[in-house]
């Protein structure tokens, strides 16, 4: 995904921190990947812990890139290429609320520009008759793969840029959602111009763990029905999402439950890369 430095990464919640917790990520070959996170001692919500969840996802994806390099493949994505930023991007409700908060915190006139792009995207979808199909599909957890592919094709044809895309750079790159973190190709970037067409011929990277799927299905304490929506609906959905009471747990407990859910339910059983195993240690 194209990067910019308009926003800073999500900070850890402002509260007393524990000793660094060590996450061991073992992909079944080579040395395990170690990640140290200084988690807060007090209770947090999933939104408060997104920075840690993103750090785990980034560590997993870094190892994926290393494994690909060992196979003679390199990631083709980089600054200046924004083809993927015109796709239908699914985000969890946790991420949608966070992205909406980022927009509200932006300085003027940047905030006005971004809000206008969200409004333009919604208006374009409405004129194309896609609001109702998208709402219906995502309200059921977006589990119908064939229906998602059809909606993704129709969305792609409209040429809607992500509202956070400005001058081919992502305004919120350090805080980008899981779908953007996970989406990588090893084929030449120019092939991505044919996405969602019969001429499509790009090589999409499959990570051994679907961290984005796990986040959408994570209630804060365990598994729930997946809650996802298009990124372009984030501002519209913020009030409804924030109206629900946020479950809180001690940060190490919540992160531990997320990792358990991710590895138990969202590890690919036959990935092109070795499977993974993740554990937490003090």
Radius of gyration: 19 Å
Strand order of the largest sheet: 2-1-9
Shape: globular
Strand content: 5-15%
- Structural class, by secondary structure, is alpha+beta
Per DSSP E runs of 2 or more residues, the count of β-strands stands at: 9
Distance between the termini: 33 Å
Succession of helices and strands: EEEHEHHHHEEHHEHEHE
Largest sheet: 3 strands, antiparallel
Task: Tally the helices.
Answer: 9
Mean pLDDT: 85
Estimate percent helicity: 25-40%
Give the uncertain stretches in residue-range form: 1-5, 12-16, 271-282
Task: Give a verbal description of the structure.
The protein is α+β, with helices and mostly antiparallel strands and 282 residues long. The chain is 39% helix and 11% strand. The chain has helices spanning 50-70, 93-105, 110-127, 131-139, 145-157, 178-182, 211-216, 234-242, 251-265; strands spanning 21-26, 33-37, 43-44, 90-92, 165-166, 169-170, 228-230, 249-250, 277-281. The protein has a three-stranded antiparallel β-sheet, covered by helices on one side. Strands 3-8 form a two-stranded antiparallel ribbon. Strands 4-7 form a two-stranded antiparallel ribbon. The longest helix has 21 residues, at 50-70. The model is unreliable at 1-5, 12-16 and 271-282 (pLDDT under 50).
């Amino acid at each position: 995904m194209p990067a910019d430095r308009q926003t800073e990464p999500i900070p850890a919640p402002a509260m007393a921190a524990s000793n660094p917790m060590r996450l061991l990520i073992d992909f079944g070959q080579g040395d395990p990947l170690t990640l140290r996170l200084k988690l807060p001692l007090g209770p947090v919500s999933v939104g408060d812990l997104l920075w840690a969840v993103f750090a785990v996802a980034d560590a997993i994806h870094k190892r994926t890139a290393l494994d690909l390099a060992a196979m003679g493949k390199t990631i083709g994505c980089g600054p200046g290429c924004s083809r993927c930023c015109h796709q239908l991007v699914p985000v969890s409700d946790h991420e949608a609320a966070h992205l909406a908060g980022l927009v509200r915190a932006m300085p003027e006139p940047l905030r006005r520009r971004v809000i206008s792009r969200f409004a333009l995207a919604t208006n374009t979808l409405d004129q194309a008759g896609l609001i109702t199909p998208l709402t219906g599909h995502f309200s059921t957890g977006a589990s119908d793969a064939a229906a998602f592919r059809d909606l993704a094709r129709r969305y792609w044809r409209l040429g809607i840029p992500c509202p956070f895309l400005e001058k081919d750079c992502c305004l919120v790159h350090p805080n980008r959602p899981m779908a953007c973190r996970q989406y990588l190709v090893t084929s030449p970037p120019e092939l991505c111009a044919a996405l969602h067409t019969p001429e499509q011929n790009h090589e999409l990277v499959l990570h051994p763990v679907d961290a984005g799927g796990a986040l959408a299905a994570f209630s804060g304490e365990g598994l729930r029905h997946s809650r996802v929506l298009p990124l372009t609906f984030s501002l519209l959905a913020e009030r409804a999402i924030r109206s629900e009471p946020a479950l809180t747990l001690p940060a190490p407990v919540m992160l531990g439950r997320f990792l358990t859910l991710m590895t138990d339910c969202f590890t690919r059983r036959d990935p092109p890369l070795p499977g993974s195993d993740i554990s937490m240690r003090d």
